[in-house]
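Reopening this ticket.

The earlier resolution said the output was attached, but the attachment link was broken on my side. Pasting everything inline this time so it's all in one place.
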Amino acid sequence: MNPLRAIARDLVERRLWPLAVLLVVAIVAVPVVFLRPSDSSTGSSVIGTPTASAAPGTATTPTSTTATPAQTADAAGKLKVKKSDAIAADGALKDPFVPAGGASKSSTSNPTSSAASAPSDSAAGAPSTPNTPTISAPPATTPTQTAPTQTTASTTPSGPSTPTSTTTAGSTKVLVADVAFARAGQTAKAQPALRLRPYPTKQWPIVDYLGITGDKGRVAFAVSPAAKVTGGNCRPSRSVCRTVIVSKGKAIKVSVPGAGGLTRTYDISVPAIRNHDLGTVKEAALGRRLVSRDGVCILHALGDYGFDWSTGTLVVNDDPVTCKYANPQPAASLPALQ
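Inline output:
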């Protein structure tokens, strides 16, 4: 007798044939169910691919249009600063304190100091000036997580950062510091300081007004290497005072060698730091971007190289240099202009 018939007859007699049928169905159905393609697996998909997004806390720099000379002069007039000395940072020159997109460049011009006598404290006409760049780096990216693989965020080194205020975007007011600068023993009237303005003159700049600090209670000045500063907070140190921070309501003394070996001493005070209303948001936005063309030239001469984050190398600024520097340079000053 055929063994399969014997097994089948035995299952029928023992009434176990339904169980045998179920086993056969299960053997056939299980592979079909598990091998059937699911809806999520159709098409191509990438698992664990990070999605680039803006890093937390990274603000987007608003796009601004180039200001016309008339707008620049109007904003300077409302701030009560000398119109001929002010330019808009998005005009012919780039504000060195506003980050620029991509890799940066800096100046090739670096005048050499010589032992010429210091000129008088009278100002001359302001020359046209070049771009003063800043170093910036691509923002860090934060990848998303896709199950089942968890990705790890990668960071990119960032350059010197500039604090971004989120409270001034729609404001009609600008921060203005009143600065008084005078020879020791003389009295000077405090006036609104145009950012990057050199003191006492562009022909013999002893300090250069950099602007108001982030706490809105102090201002910073770049200082000539030959100057001796009394008071304020010197950086990086008191013996190597390249930048001095002066608090509102405080004063400092700056002494430098003058003509004939005589020492000249100047008093610098900051009576007030205040909000000045320009009336409209547009005027306020332009007012915050006003800088001294002379000061931009002075800072332009101090930076020979920038850093290219994409290549990891130094880059030399090839912007057209239109600043007119004094030759020879006066002693005991920052880079001086004609």
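Reporter confirms the inline version is readable. Residues 40-65, 92-166 have pLDDT under 50 and may be disordered. The radius of gyration is 35 Å.
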